[in-house]
Amino acid sequence: MPTHLENPVRLGVIVGVRGIKGDVRIKSFTDEPVAIGDYGTLFDKTGERRFDLKVLGTQKGVVLARIEGINDRTAAEALKKTELFIERNQLPAPEEDEFYHSDLEGLEAVMVSGDRIGKVIGVFDFGAGPVVEISGNVMVPFTRAAVPEVDIEGGKMTIDPPDGLFDPPGKEEDESVEDETT
Question: What's the whole-number average pLDDT of the chain?
Fold first, then answer.
C-alpha cells in the first residue's frame, strides 16, 4: 500500500450514501462511469487510505458501490467528499488526439502568434462540450479549431481563440449604441 501517491489522478468523488448497509454514491470521472471499479484499489489523495470497490450499478447519474470494510450508513457518511485516486501509471495510454485532463493541467497556453496567455488550470464539461480554463480567468472551448495543438512533452497548448473571446466585456453593446447615435 502506498504511503503517498507520486502522480495521482482523480477518478471520482464520494457524493453520498444509499441505504443502511454502507453503500456509497460516487460521481465518476471515467468515460464509462462504472469503469471506476475496473482500476483495482483506489486511494485518497494522500495514498494513506485505500478503497476496494464493488460496483453495484448506477442511479441518477452516479455510481452505486460498496467499499470493503464499510458496513453501515454511519461509516459511509464519514466518507462523503472523499476523492478517489489512482497512480497515473495505472491508466492505459490515451489514443492519438485523446488526453487525460490531468495531463493538460499545468501546460503553458500560448496563442498561435506565440504570445503567452497563462497556464491550464482545469478542463471542465458543463454540458456543451469540454472547455479549458486558463489562469487569468479565461475559458476556451476544447475543440480542434480553438486548440489546434497540444504538446504534452513540450509542456504547451496552442490556442487559436474564437472571434471575440478576448474582447473586453460590453464591446458589442458599445458598438450598438454608437450605431444608434450616428
Answer: 89
